[in-house]
Write a structure and sequence with these properties.
The protein is α+β, with helices and mostly antiparallel strands. The protein is built from nine helices and four strands, in the order H-H-E-H-E-H-E-H-E-H-H-H-H.
């Protein structure tokens, strides 16, 4: 019996979607547009967080040592660095390592630029240091600077702070935009279902008088909103996924190695679930709101 009631309700919901024609299509595309914007902010937020995590993992400072530091003292400094609480890893780059790097990457094909550098190496020994928590970079840099034999510390904390601040702003802005879009979409779907309810108000009144429950009357309209919301979610998902796939393909051609984006395999399930939940929620919420007036007879 329950199954037959559901079939009847679902059948009526499909008829309502078809009966409303342009209004249903308009609602579908409006919900899809709202979800696309929601999806764009979701993808941006995911990638900002992902890039931020990459920067956190690769956050390094470099401690350059004084030219007159002995080899023995260089090794002792390495031990002192690793004993600092916020230091995750420290790698020694000797003068010769720095010169070899310059020859291979900076002066490649321009041998005349480094003639004589083997006899008079201008570089200094240094330690590249990976930190545990970039929030404590300032304190760690201070401790490194106080080490006997330290010349200066190169720190890119300003760049890191800028990325972290941008990430925080994006998160807050995304939440605000999502809430606004949610309210707009609910109002739109509410008006669409309200049109159906208004056109069938006499039929609803008759059903009420012959003993039909509010639940029995409401379900077809709730399903109508859910159907429109689901179709809007599917359309939005296809467009966002196609756009992100095209972006990933373009980024692959650029061969950027500084950072990478979240893969399509990770993005697809997130926006898919998000769109279906929000699409159906918007549809159902709009339907419930629009039904209240006409169930009181």
């Amino acid at each position: 019996m329950k199954m037959s009631k559901f079939k009847y309700s679902f059948s009526e919901a499909k008829k309502n979607v078809t009966r409303n024609g342009l209004m249903s299509v308009a609602s579908l595309f409006t919900i899809a547009c709202c979800l696309i914007i929601l999806g764009l902010f979701t993808v941006i937020t995911m990638n900002v967080n992902y890039i931020t995590s990459q920067i956190k993992d690769e956050c390094e400072v470099q401690l350059f040592l004084k030219d007159d530091t002995s080899e023995e003292r260089v090794k002792e400094i390495g031990i002192e660095i690793k004993n600092i609480e916020n230091v995750k890893e420290a790698s020694l780059f000797t003068k010769q390592d720095m010169l070899d790097y310059a020859k291979q990457d900076m002066f490649q094909g321009k041998e005349e630029l480094y003639n004589g550098l083997d006899e008079d190496n201008p570089f200094s020994d240094s330690y590249k240091i990976t930190l545990v928590d970039i929030q404590n970079t300032a304190d760690t840099v201070k401790q490194l600077s106080e080490i006997d034999g330290a010349d200066h510390v190169v720190n890119n904390q300003d760049v890191v702070n800028m990325v972290l601040s941008f990430s925080s702003v994006i998160k807050k802005f995304s939440i605000a935009v999502m809430l606004v879009l949610l309210l707009v979409a609910i109002v739109i779907i509410s008006n669409t279902v309200k049109l159906t309810v208004f056109n069938r108000r006499k039929e609803i009144n008759i059903m009420k008088y012959i003993g039909a429950t509010d639940r029995f009357i409401r379900i077809p309209f709730v399903l109508e909103g859910a159907i429109i919301g689901f179709l809007g979610a599917v359309l939005a998902f296809l467009l966002v996924f196609w756009g992100y796939f095209a972006l990933m393909k373009y980024m692959a051609q650029l061969e950027i190695t500084v950072f990478s984006l979240v893969s399509t395999a990770e993005v697809a399930p997130v926006i898919g679930v998000l769109f279906v939940i929000f699409g159906c929620l918007i549809g159902v919420s709009g339907s419930v709101i629009s039904m209240r007036k006409y169930l009181h007879v």
